[in-house]
Design brief:
heterodimer, B: alpha+beta, Alpha-D-Glucose-1,6-Bisphosphate, Chain A, domain 4, 8-stranded antiparallel beta sheet, 4 helices
Chain lengths: 109, 166
């Protein structure tokens, strides 16, 4: 478990890296297969995979001279916490807004 | 439509939202038990404030009860919370800890405690509210992860995308 979640969020804060995660959600893939599906170069794909790997989001298996990448689902679990927290917070602030509007109408500020 | 902005700083979730209401009123919504009872609990849950000592070191002990029959197993369930105010700067800032407790006010040591810092800032036409929810340590965060582990990978990514692209 990372002490700090920022590397995880940083790793995911890129459209191509999110797309790679989305592809690996369905199946394990080689660099070449990922590059082809995203229509970006292999060096570019390798670079993005390296960021995901360093953040612990993907694992790699080397078969002969091919590198096959798989998603490390466990690493994404902390995101659930932030998601549920954010949802709760957002819903609460919606109710606060409703309450404030009501208070203003009643002139009880 | 009011804007909501959120981002992560280390183990802290920051949520910013502007309200078309004066700063004094937004602050009162957080510092008056009757006001808190009107909006605090989740949808379908009623909040009752039992203790509210609004001063540094003071206790805020409250109970949320599910009153919505549609929520199935949750209907009738009680969830007690106990907070301790750490810092209060009237109409500007409130810092408190947020813990799970029982009806007698005993904090559940098995569950994580968070530190919440709420700030209220004047902006044209209203108030900017900034809330920071900080997990005390990585271990606490892991507990919440284990407790609330929910599958839902696709919506997770959508949510994340929404967070990071704001």
């Amino acid at each position: 478990m990372e002490e700090n979640l920022s590397p995880l969020f940083h790793a995911l804060a890129d459209p191509n890296r999110l797309r790679i995660i989305d592809l690996l959600r369905h199946e394990d893939l080689t660099v070449g297969a990922i590059a082809e599906r995203l229509d970006i170069s292999q060096p570019q794909t390798s670079k993005q995979l390296r960021v995901l790997y360093d953040a612990g989001l993907v694992s790699v298996t080397i078969e002969a001279n091919r590198r096959r990448y798989a998603l490390n689902r466990q690493a994404l679990k902390p995101l659930d916490v932030w998601r549920s927290r954010l949802e709760a917070e957002t819903a609460r602030l919606d109710r606060l807004e409703e309450f404030l509007n009501q208070s203003k109408r009643e002139g009880t500020s | 439509m009011e804007t909501l902005k959120s981002y992560v700083e280390g183990n802290t979730l920051v949520v910013e939202r502007s309200f078309n209401a004066p700063r004094a009123l937004v602050f009162e919504a957080f510092s008056t038990p009757a006001h808190l009872e009107a909006w605090w609990g989740p949808a379908g849950w009623k909040t009752e404030v039992h203790t509210f000592e609004f001063e540094p070191g003071g206790t805020w002990h409250y109970c949320m009860t599910c009153v919505d029959k549609e929520q199935g197993d949750y209907y009738g369930m009680e969830s007690w919370g106990k907070s301790t105010f750490l810092e209060i700067d009237p109409h500007r800032k409130i810092v408190y800890t947020d813990a799970f407790s029982d009806a007698d006010g005993h904090v559940n040591p098995e569950l994580p405690v968070m530190t919440i810092t709420n700030e209220f800032v004047d902006i044209p036409n209203g108030t900017l509210f900034i809330s920071r929810s900080e997990f005390t340590d990585a271990e606490s965060l892991q507990q919440v992860v284990d407790m609330g582990a929910v599958e839902g990978f696709a919506s997770q990514l959508e949510r994340l995308d929404a967070i990071v692209s704001r």
